[in-house]
Amino acid sequence: xxxxxxxxxxxxxxxxxxxxxxxxxxxxxxxxxxxxxxxxxxxxxxxxxxxxxxxxxxxxxxxxxxxxxxxxxxxxxxxxxxxxxxxxxxxxxxxxxxxxxxxxxxxxxxxxxxxxxxxxxxxxxxxxxxxxxxxxxxxxxxxxxxxxxxxxxxxxxxxxxxxxxxxxxxxxxxxxxxxxxxxxxxxxxxxxxxxxxxxxxxxxxxxxxxxxxxxxxxxxxxxxxxxxxxxxxxxxxxxxxxxxxxxxxxxxxxxxxxxxxxxxxxx
Length: 267
Fold this sequence. Notes:
Helix content: 25-40%
Shape: globular
Number of domains: 2
Structural class: alpha/beta
Strand content: 15-25%
Mean pLDDT: 84
Strand order of the largest sheet: 6-7-8-3-9-10
Order of helices and strands: EEEHEEHEHHHEHEHEEHH
CATH topology of the largest domain: Rossmann fold
Low-confidence stretches: 247-267
CATH superfamily of the largest domain: P-loop containing nucleotide triphosphate hydrolases
Radius of gyration: 19 Å
CATH architecture of the largest domain: 3-Layer(aba) Sandwich
């Protein structure tokens, strides 16, 4: 069994008396693709924000390769190789695709101050920019303003900018949100390619995507871990079906998880 890369112990986050994340234990193993799923309000994005230190936990501990990173800030986490994407595209809309990648590369190299210098000083980065754009199928759009790209291509560009940071642990927050089936299939392949030599933790609402990509799935409900396992185990668990159906009041009625991996669910 591969060693743990990221571990949360008794992770808890309270907001003025409301417990958004309740005593969660989570273990992400090296080289795996691990999914967090659950209905709306389950605490998935809050867990992401805690793990990447956009939020500080009320209680609990976060370990990265055995090191306690709980006190660290988000910038220090990123420097260790823990890099995340966001639900909403975070690219610069009025810069070209290549320029977006170049800014990410400058940040990764610690030379972001060069952004304010002549463009000629940045050309050394262009070859790597083109490699990254090609890896997500955007080479032909290198000089296209991001605002002119279709939504699916913007998300692909965001993935490329994330990869420019050379992450060891890649956290993807709803990478297929708002996409049509064609774009979803493309992103599945991009994530699979990006996962080579990396560990991936993803929040994803589309269970078809989860079934195709993920080695292990953690199901959250009301801020706590409901169950964990591979797709077959999780999808057959009656507690998971109960939460998604909303029969206990905690999920969304009618959002039943599929038994067929080809079906989708949008918690």
